[in-house]
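Quick start: read one record
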Amino acid sequence: MVGLAIGLAIVLLATRIKSFQAIIATILIILVLIVSVVITIYMPGQDSETTMKETPSPPTTPIPQIPPTVIPSSPTPTPQSTILIWQNIYGGLDDDAAYSVQQTADGGYIIAGESDSYGKSGSTNAYLVKTDSKGNEQWSQTFGGLDSDAAHSVQQTTDGGYIIAGYSYSYGKSGSGDAYLVKTDSEGNEQWSQTFGGLDSDYFFSVRQTTDGGYIIAGHSYSYGKSGSTDAYLVKTDSEGNEQWSQTFGGLDSDYFFSVRQTTDGGYIIAGESDSYGKSGSTDAYLVKTDSEGNEQWSQNFGGLDDDGAASVQQTAHGRYRLGRR
């Protein structure tokens, strides 16, 4: 319809136009009409007869709602699985036991205990075993006599040998057991031995070489206990095992030492258990600090209403003390 109107307009104008200027004006009018038609076609308005189909807008993709980040609490740590590297047994056809072990300077291990298998004349002897880093036995030795003897603690000494502490009924006074100290060379050959205590039974459970080359040994004593009780027992010796001094600790009930260490101030820290100072008649872990002469500086007991004890003690880098439970 628009094209027909344009054609009629051109014809009518052409019949009436007489001058050149009029022709030019007519042409301009025609061009304006043509542009209007083009605009009407490609940009339809409300009055246009040609309706263009609108291109539908792409569907709006909803923006996902991101939930707030929640940082979970750290899971409760679980103990790491223990991996067995190796295991070995030592001894013979009778009963044998190990009570103390320490890694040696060569990466192997020194083990102390007691042996019925290798005891003299069927008795129990103190038992010392040296192994390589894989636990393979390199040598073993026994110590003691014709009665019961045992080693409860061992440490490698600065000369490469070993110091062993325990008890001996073979060499005890009047048939009682005495605390027993043995020094060996690097192959376990005995260099000297000493016994300590009185007319009753006395025992060593821990030994350490001291900075002066001597030894500090802890245990318990029936010989020197108060009112017939057992007292915790501390002995200091020189490098040959000769006693320099001894002290007992505790009250009117039974008290024991199981571990001793020299402290950085030259004194000693000793741990064990005490019936004398336990709560409500129970046994408590017992910790004693002494000076270099074994004089008590302070003591503490730890635990609750049941039985508690300390099997080991160690001074930390901060000058505090760490106890291992018995």
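The longest helix spans residues 20-42.
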